[in-house]
Amino acid sequence: MGHMGGPRGEPCPRNLFEVGERRPESYPRVMADLEVTPLTTVLGAEVSGVSLSPELDADSVKALRQALLRHKVLFVRDQSLSPSALTDLARLFGEPTEAHPVEPSVEGHPEVLALDSDEGARADIWHSDLTFQDRPPMGALLHAKVVPAVGGDTIWADMSATYEALSPTLRRFLDGLTATHSPSKAGGYFSQRDPEGDKSSRTAAAEPTHHPVVRVHPETGTRSVFVNPLFTDKIDGLRRGESDALLEVIQRLAIAPERLVRWHWREGDLAFWDNRCTMHYALLEFSGPRRMNRVALHGESPVGVGA
After folding, report:
1. Cα separations in angstroms, 294 against 176, 181, 239
2. pLDDT in tens, 122-144
3. Are strands 260-263 and 73-76 parallel, antiparallel or unpaired?
4. Is 244 known to be catalytic?
5. pLDDT at residue 9 in the model
6. What number does CATH give the domain 28-297?
7. Element (H, E) at 144
8. By three-state DSSP, how is residue 14 classified?
9. Of 211, 217, 276, 280, which residue is the catalytic one?
10. Fewer CB atoms near the end CB (10 Å): N or C, the chain?
């Protein structure tokens, strides 16, 4: 992205402080020379030339939002963000949700989900976040605090590219269908991080939600397959065997290597993904601690084709 000038067309310095001077952590950059480097031909891009903070300028926020819509997952290295700063940064792109209906938040920060491997945090099943809700999150920001030396990568799948990979006949068939999403489909997946059992019991008892199998993106208009193995129980109107077989076909296409991007974490990395058109999976093949903070953003009720 080109240079964004300062007041009266004057060029903005990359840093207001001279070399050797310490820039206060709370002081934002005036501007950012964003560089967006695609990581694959379908999804994922690394963003450089930006220091993320709650005071990020409007042009940079707009550029990041546009990059997210195009690449679906953005990665930014070497970011220093407290839980408060992460929450306020997220507010630039939407309204943060509660941390999680079951899992614990960071103490004093009800919007920040603490993902600590030492406390049993895991995400080793393909999923889009919380699709059993009427309005699943539109996206999430995940910040790496402590990472293992080897392993612990996260993989994202492009569900828009998955839709395009289906035959035209199958796309037309799926366009008019809905599917049942239920927290009970996940079984006891979250219960180990709910020692009292109250939250997990209430969540599991919630009524299932029905979403279109093919979702139309509210900002781009593109279509994506909106099902996932963790929360999608069944395609409505089909026999169980038919639904299972069709969901398996979709899943095999979704996780084909050409529709994936894999990120190897370093401390300070931030990932920002569009939950409306991606799935993700966190690998458990690592040793040592892995600690991350996540803030999700309120989303819309999914809309299908022709709605």
Report:
1. 34, 23, 37
2. 778 999 999 999 999 999 999 99
3. unpaired
4. no
5. 35
6. 3.60.130.10
7. strand 139-146
8. coil
9. 280
10. C
CA distance 88 to 44: 24
If one compares 5 and 204, the residue with the highest pLDDT of the two is 204
The Cβ of residue 264 has, within 10 Å, a number of other Cβ atoms equal to 11
| Mean pLDDT confidence for 257-272 | 97
Average pLDDT, the chain: 86
Q: Give 213-262 as a DSSP string.
A: SEEEPTTT--EEE---TTTEEEETTS-HHHHHHHHHHHHHHHTSGGGEEE
- 264: annotated active-site residue: no
Residue 190, pLDDT score: 57
With tokens 């009720």, the residue in question is 301
Contact 115, 307 (CB under 8 A): no
CA atoms within 13 A of residue 216's CA, in its CB half-sphere: 10
How far apart CA 300 and CA 266 sit, in angstroms, is 32
The string of pLDDT tens digits covering residues 82-93 is: 999 999 999 999
> Is 127 one of the catalytic residues?
yes
Q: Which of the following is catalytic: 127, 217, 223, 276?
A: 127
Of 129, 194, 233, 269, which residue is the catalytic one? 129
> In the numeric block, which tokens belong to residue 254?
């979704």
